[in-house]
Amino acid sequence: MIFHPLGLAGAFRITPQLMTDERGAFARRFCADTFRARGLEADLVQRSISFNARAGTLRGLHFQAPPHLETKIVRCARGAIFDVIVDLRDSSPTYGQWHGEELTADNRLMLYIPKGFAHGFQSLEDNTEVDYEITPAYVPDAGAGFRFDDPILAIDWPVANIIISERDRALPPSFAGIRL
Ligand SMILES: Cc1cn([C@H]2C[C@H](O)[C@@H](COP(=O)(O)OP(=O)(O)O[C@H]3O[C@H](C)C(=O)[C@H](O)[C@H]3O)O2)c(=O)[nH]c1=O
């Protein structure tokens, strides 16, 4: 695995290193010892799937409220997504900044998202599936977030036909004032 630090400290793009032969390839996409050695969270207690039937589906921008802040590893197992993380860490010099990354089944890229970030994505193809590794466990009442079209962030979502849930439509308009 190659860890590429993003401009938002503590977040990484991870590239699995393919070992190829005539059959195809093999690559490690997680290793607890490697993550611990890098000071990253290695005890990811839940693994989840997000299936998105239509291109343009947008989920987010979400986080779990303290004390249930999440660490996540996100990858695209089928199709493609535009993945966005937003730094909401109160003490961070990049507070209020965001990073977008195209994660696809073909590029096999992953994002490591530390605690204190909001997360969201938009699917770029039909039948897109996203894999999550998350800690701590899901706490239904801790769900929080803000709208994808926050005017302060002005995220340029790639697919014009945006499909979102009523819940996401009703989120607060901006991250302003949220400090984790
Ligand atoms: C997140 C989650 C949801 N659920 C249940 C709750 C609902 O019955 C159903 C769909 O939940 P929700 O609409 O909150 O799912 P998303 O809109 O995809 O939310 C996720 O989207 C953004 C992009 C994220 O990064 C988070 O993983 C998460 O907030 O799955 C669970 O049982 N466990 C879970 O961990």
UniProtKB/TrEMBL annotation:
<feature type="site" description="Participates in a stacking interaction with the thymidine ring of dTDP-4-oxo-6-deoxyglucose">
    <location>
        <position position="138"/>
    </location>
</feature>
<protein>
    <recommendedName>
        <fullName>dTDP-4-dehydrorhamnose 3,5-epimerase</fullName>
        <ecNumber>5.1.3.13</ecNumber>
    </recommendedName>
</protein>
<dbReference type="InterPro" id="IPR000888">
    <property type="entry name" value="RmlC-like"/>
</dbReference>
<dbReference type="InterPro" id="IPR014710">
    <property type="entry name" value="RmlC-like_jellyroll"/>
</dbReference>
<dbReference type="InterPro" id="IPR011051">
    <property type="entry name" value="RmlC_Cupin_sf"/>
</dbReference>
<comment type="function">
    <text>Catalyzes the epimerization of the C3' and C5'positions of dTDP-6-deoxy-D-xylo-4-hexulose, forming dTDP-6-deoxy-L-lyxo-4-hexulose.</text>
</comment>
<dbReference type="GO" id="GO:0000271">
    <property type="term" value="P:polysaccharide biosynthetic process"/>
</dbReference>
<dbReference type="GO" id="GO:0008830">
    <property type="term" value="F:dTDP-4-dehydrorhamnose 3,5-epimerase activity"/>
</dbReference>
<keyword id="KW-0413">Isomerase</keyword>
<comment type="subunit">
    <text>Homodimer.</text>
</comment>
<dbReference type="GO" id="GO:0019305">
    <property type="term" value="P:dTDP-rhamnose biosynthetic process"/>
</dbReference>
<feature type="active site" description="Proton donor">
    <location>
        <position position="132"/>
    </location>
</feature>
<comment type="similarity">
    <text>Belongs to the dTDP-4-dehydrorhamnose 3,5-epimerase family.</text>
</comment>
<feature type="active site" description="Proton acceptor">
    <location>
        <position position="62"/>
    </location>
</feature>
<dbReference type="GO" id="GO:0005829">
    <property type="term" value="C:cytosol"/>
</dbReference>
<comment type="pathway">
    <text>Carbohydrate biosynthesis; dTDP-L-rhamnose biosynthesis.</text>
</comment>
<dbReference type="Pfam" id="PF00908">
    <property type="entry name" value="dTDP_sugar_isom"/>
</dbReference>
